[in-house]
Automatic annotation (TrEMBL):
Pfam families hit by this protein: SoxY (PF13501)
Descriptive protein name: Ig-like SoxY domain-containing protein
Keyword terms: Signal
Domain (Ig-like SoxY): residue spans on this chain: 47-149
Organism placement in taxonomy: Bacteria, Pseudomonadati, Pseudomonadota, Betaproteobacteria, Burkholderiales
Signal peptide: 1-30
Length: 151
């Protein structure tokens, strides 16, 4: 019978071998550098290869109306649409607009929650990029009373 310590040791060895041989899934390690470095909503969507965004009632964004501390602002996004490729959360006035990108497949429910830093009051966008390249969005203004990005 194997002890707990031996099991953990073997698991760590297997994980190390997988990491060094490149057998981990590529999508788990990949990200779009130009999208994360983009400085505007339009630049992020363009970097991800989608068309100009159109407002939609099928995409929802959630968050506080007033965030007392910009260092930890809870944000949610969801949609009821089928054929979603990516769900994005964007903060317009952040130094880097793209806060989060969630890759969606048919087996994943497009309903996500995260937290973000916000340096100042800003519009927050939830964008659903569809398999055909269309971009649909919803937006909400979040007012920040104490900045979290160095402010």
């Amino acid at each position: 019978m194997q002890t707990r310590r031996e099991t953990l040791k073997h698991s760590a060895m297997v994980a190390g071998l997988l990491a060094t041989t490149g057998l981990f899934p590529q999508y788990a390690q990949a990200y779009n550098k130009s999208a994360f470095e983009a400085k505007s909503v339009a630049d992020v969507i363009k970097a991800l290869g989608a068309s100009a965004p159109v407002e939609s009632k099928d995409v929802t964004i959630g968050g506080p109306d007033i965030a007392e501390n910009g260092a930890v602002v809870p944000l949610t996004t969801s949609t009821t649409l089928a054929g979603v490729k990516h769900m994005l959360i964007l903060v317009e006035k952040n130094p880097n607009t793209l806060v989060a990108q969630f890759n969606v497949t048919d087996s994943v429910e497009p309903n996500f929650a995260t937290r973000s830093k916000m340096g100042q009051s800003s519009d927050v966008y939830a964008v659903a990029i569809m398999n055909d390249g269309k971009a649909l969005f919803a937006k909400k203004e979040v007012k920040v009373t104490l900045g979290g990005c160095g402010g």
